[in-house]
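[User] Could I get a sequence and structure tokens?

[Assistant]
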Amino acid sequence: MRLSSLAVAAFVAVAVGISTYAIRLAKEETSATKVEFEAYKVTVEGKVADSRKEGIEARGAAGNALVRAAELEKQASELRAANLARLRGLGRNCRSGAC
């Protein structure tokens, strides 16, 4: 009876030791995972900030392109009006026999 009690006590002691070791490993792994996750979050935050900056720059470039396009459209409209006026003037001269 005494031997079986010692065997049970030894078995329980080994089980407790294994459980303690497993818990310690789990805590270390969790700690390492938290550190890796925090590093990942910092990296992602940096990439998001870079993306936002690029988006703002792209919007600025697009805005500049729209302004330039409007300027060119105005210039084209003025040239069309000038050409139309010139053509009308030529038409009057041709009717009067000056062509």
